[in-house]
Amino acid sequence: MTSSLTLLAGPDALRLLRERGLRPDDIDVLPGASGGPKWLVLAGLDRVLFGEFLKERTRPLHLLGSSIGSWRLACLAQKDPVAALERFAEAYVEQRYPPKPPPELVSTTSRGILDALLGPDGEEQLLNHPWARLHVLTTRCRGLTASEQRHAQLLGLALGAVGNLVSRRTLGLHLERVIFHTAGDTSPFSGLADLPSVHLPLTRENLRPALMASGSIPLVLAGVRIPGAGEGVYRDGGVLDYHLDLEFGPGEGLVLYPHFYPYVVPGWFDKSLPWRRAGPLNFRRALLMSPSPEFVARLPGGRIPDREDFVRMTDAERLRAWRQVLAEGQRMGDELRELLATGKLAEHVRPL
């Protein structure tokens, strides 16, 4: 039977999986990448991971997300993660825009999607979850990148992209990573030193603005000012941490990474740089779960959804295609459920 899942593991993860399989309490970190509509392909996998596999977990699990990844993980950090995922998916699929919508309109629509995701008391559940520790990645912008004037912001981003060609470290001249989290002193990411980084607690006051900022794509959504945080304009966490090529902290537990692709792109400016892919160092204890090529070939158009769908399709075509992706995604969840139930997951894992 053709597999819907690609399972890749670093050497430390592979050894652990072969010794005792995949167990909920063996996981230290669960990352969530940027990618806009690409997250829809993972919804079936998320339902099984969030609603079944991790349900009996007892010790803290650190959730680290940028952009749409932080919104997915905000579902996991609620009492009923599957219900939160369903609210999120329905509101996300139903968003509609006129041609070339202004950033403020996209931001207003996105705030409505976030309201649906959190529901009436999601904030309280997220801040007081017994074991889920959410980390929301945002980017604080300096200089031209902070401007809401399109041409100035575009010039600032272009300068960042040029510097990034030389080294990712040059991005620190324009941008700063700010992580809002519920982990207190236990955050495994407090030692991040690859780029300027600030760590702040998630509170009732800043939770929604932080999540909005994490998903506020430059030039597409308006920047966000976050109460109680440092002065400045906050934008999409994926600008710096697109697919999260990070040091995932100390410990021997697994990094369980449901992802759209079987590879990791470090930053937003690296998307068009085929030589800029994550190396093995940060992924020694990672298990990467992604759609198989055969699965992707069955999707509408033979591809994973992306933001260009808003341009290349009518609303009716896009809604039909995205709902088909959600339906097909159940295959990935069903396959994972079977592998976990039979204890055969390790047999299907290949070295990353």
TrEMBL record:
<protein>
    <recommendedName>
        <fullName>Patatin-like phospholipase family protein</fullName>
    </recommendedName>
</protein>
<dbReference type="InterPro" id="IPR016035">
    <property type="entry name" value="Acyl_Trfase/lysoPLipase"/>
</dbReference>
